[in-house]
Amino acid sequence: MDFFPPLFASDSDLAALHRQAAELAYFYNSKVKAKGGNDWVSPGRLHATAVLHQLYQSVLTHHLADSEPDYFPRLTNLIAKNHAAQEVLAFYIKEFPSPLLVEQNLPIDFFYEESLRGYFIHQVMEENPALVKAAKPFLSPEGLSFPQASLALTALLGGHGQSLSSSAMDGDIFSFLTRPAKLYPDSLLDQITYILEHWGELIPQNLRMMLLRAIDFVQEEERPHFPAVGAGGKPPMHVPDYSLFDSEYEAFTADRNWMPNVIMMAKSTLVWLDQLSKEYGRQIDTLDKIPDEELEKLSSRGFTALWLIGLWERSTASRKVKNYCGNPDAEASAYSLKNYEIADSLGGWAALDNLRQRASRYNIRLASDMVPNHTGIDGDWVINHHEYFIRQSYPPFPSYTFDGPNLSDDPRVEIKIEDHYYDQSDAAVTFRRRDLHTGDTTYIFHGNDGTSMPWNDTAQLDFLNPATREAVYQQIKHVAQNFPIIRFDAAMTLAKKHIQRLWYPAPGHGGDIAGRSQYGLEENEFNR
Question: Which of 70, 160, 162, 333 would you call most buried, defined as having the most Cβ atoms within 10 angstroms of its Cβ?
């Protein structure tokens, strides 16, 4: 398999390492799929393999510097006297060439020492069943067979080392590195957990972070996401763990005298107007046409507030997505908004003012929704202020494609959701925004509460951005100036602990939203 980009270099940062694993897995899986196979590799587990490889190298370097600087020179001299062992090393160099060693044009003795070190790490990995399973096509490909003397050489690697001097280590270095696999042969996550608990001082801080993120990336892939309950019965419940978060205090304002006495009727505005049209035998399609009789009826039944769902200008992209997916009569979601103007189709602000004045005669206050967590994917802020949103400059997964219809009505900007939404074969976590004048392309995350699928007609606001917080605050003020009662949609996602859990998870606590673990923050960083 020809895959030419550099992979898993020791100086790779967290994001680069994960991206390389995702690209390699996608490349390999595409080849397998083209041949009709189904022996896929997992990007998360491939990434965990790369992190463990770097850890093995780091611990080995630490051991050589502290205890056995002559370990590989000594072994190289022994191998030079053993023809069968030389064949094994030559076979390894041929099948697993190191471009870095070749490029450096090293002296032959040093080249063989470094190649023997590579073989040593390879054998540590081969002794790990979970790791071999995760990276078999690259570590132990089908049909590859080392010369028979490899068993003796591997035994020599393990048996020729000295006892370890570090307080965190015991036995020889080969036995130490393979111990987690012997304890937990079938689970990379259990091995990593063991390493984090027992290898303490041997793990540099950057690798500790990578190990925690390796757990998160695997959990992102393997955490089940369930659709609505159907014939299969109720899915198992996932209860988030908030034990690492500080307790939050309550800070409610005092109720005014009328507030505790509110009795509110909720109406889906479009549905209600259609029902009224049929009931009264005339077209009632705007707010100012709602009959006084209906307001009087509500008042006589004890209602003091009327919550009208779906007043704001809705996303046209939301409606288009529903139409393209086979529902030609569907309207846009009431919670995928273009802006906070009363919809023209409902008569705009003038029609609302008319209804408000008439409702007040019956002591009825009007209530409205406000959606602070997200906007529609073609909302005004997506068009004019994409910096308000959680986004990145590349798709979070190589399998994502964006070849479907442009959902934007604005000639300046192209908006596309990921193609697999249309055939319901995947539920991508991002959509693509492209500036048609500059070519600038960004991938914005869909709104998501981590419990099920992303909301594919929404764009997730970034509350770590002060400009976003101020813009949302001003929007809330705008709504509050027009409605004495506000119902906040998806309000639970605005709690600090939820924002961190979903979008900036602490190391080792990721997995709720795919693609976000690499952006995680320690709690002290998050709270700055």
Answer: 333
pLDDT tens profile 96-150 = 888 777 677 777 778 888 888 998 999 999 999 999 999 988 888 887 888 877 7
Q: Is 40 in the same domain as 189?
A: yes
By the 8 A CB rule, do 54 and 121 touch?
no
Question: Which two structure tokens, joined as six digits, stand for 524?
Answer: 């002290």
358 in the same domain as 287: yes
**Could you tell me the pTM of the whole model?**
0.81
Is the Cα torsion angle 516, 198, 175, 60 positive or negative in sign?
positive
Quote the CA–CA distance of 110 and 71 in Å, as a whole number: 13
- Domain extent for 55: 14-222
Q: What is the pLDDT of residues 306-319, one digit of tens each?
A: 999 999 999 999 99
Q: Supply 20's token pair.
A: 């390389």
Alpha-carbon span 369 to 485, nearest angstrom: 9
**Crossing angle of the two packed helices 150-159 and 108-126, in degrees rounded to 10:** 90
315 falls within a domain:
yes
How many folded domains does the chain comprise? 2
Pair 281, 171 in one domain: no
- In terms of DSSP bridges, do strands 365-370 and 305-309 run parallel, antiparallel, or are they unpaired? parallel
Q: Residue 237 domain-assigned?
A: no
Q: How far is CA 31 from CA 24, 35, 41, 64, 135, in A?
A: 11, 7, 11, 40, 15
Q: What's the burial of 186, exposed, middle or buried (CB within 10 Å: 0-12/13-18/19+)?
A: exposed
Q: What is the mean pLDDT of residues 216-230?
A: 67
From 222, 248, 269, give the residue that closes a domain: 222
